[in-house]
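[step 3/7] fold_predict: job queued, chain A
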Amino acid sequence: MLFSLALMVLCALILNGLMQKLRLPGLVGMLLTGIIMGPYVLNPTVPELLTISADLRKLALIVILTRAGLSLDIEDLKRVGRPALLMCFLPATLEIIACTLFAPIIFHMTHLEGAIMGSVLGAVSPAVVVPKMLKLMEGGWGRKMSIPQMIMAAASADDIYVIVLFTSLMGMYGSGRFEAASLLNVPISIALGLALGILTGIALTAFFKRVHIRDTVKILIILSVSFLLVWVEEAVHTIVPVSGLLAVMALGGTVLKQHSVLAGRLSGKFSKIWVAAELLLFVLVGASVNISYATRAVLPALALICAALAVRMLGVFISTTKTPIPFKERLFCAIAYLPKATVQAAIGGLPLAAGVAAGDTILTVAVLAILITAPVGALGVDLSYHRLLNRDDGEW
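[step 4/7] structure written:
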């Protein structure tokens, strides 16, 4: 296993650097590494590594959400107002609806499987979007309407919304039936997850204020507690629905609210952990792709992805309509909301691992969505911001 792991990491770093030289997201190189090194192409990996890949992807997802919680300032959403709130869920909702309607026609799957695919595709990628928005904020672009802040905050909330829906839809699939009443589990899961995360965050912050320990130890405590929160969801799911992943993010957000200085330090350390977690996440999801199936499904997958993205962009325009935001900046928001990567890599393989009949198709579409939208969205932001956003002086 050590040889396989070393080979995959080194190749991923090389392709990551190459993609960055080409001004493309490095994660595309990591994903390609997984595909090339996976069991369906060169196959230098050992089965044991792929056996634990689902657990490693879940660990990476927990790191993502904790980091997002420590960085998600609700005040940013409040300042922007209605458009920021709508962008948290409306574009993703419309994209999921589009997949629910179109996927059964294109791939001959059930509507529930189409909804699961939509919930996999529906999230925007913080790994691509956040660094771009931070750069724009430093340069003063879009500051008048708080465009970068709105996109960053809404993208984080968008991810949580989609993950909660994905978890609920997978639960419906596991029960073997689709009941409208089971949709009530979604708000219950959200409310209980928020409450559990907030209470845990308050308790941890109080502990950290009283007991002086190194930040590295605090990171280990937060990660361990986050693992327990996700475990609680699995332990009580037959009694009451609780979103453990939302609780993880709420924990981070509560620490930010209660102790912003500490949250800033911890967020920096989580960013370093994310370097390793991101590499493992994208390499392992690439290794799970059945390349022979992917080549057969590429054209239908492209059709579905393009249709879903068109509907998603419509959702962004609806979210920002009847606001002071100029049309050009609304167009920029739609472009910036295209990239998909992190969440798709984290949950794209879960339906296949859970035995969903369309699991291969869902994973293939998720990987193709990353390969297409991550570079297109990143390049779209880089090439358009100076034309579509205004600067501090208000001139174009």
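[step 5/7] annotate
Residues 55-388 form a domain with the Na+/H+ antiporter like fold fold (CATH 1.20.1530.20).
The mean pLDDT is 83.
exit 0
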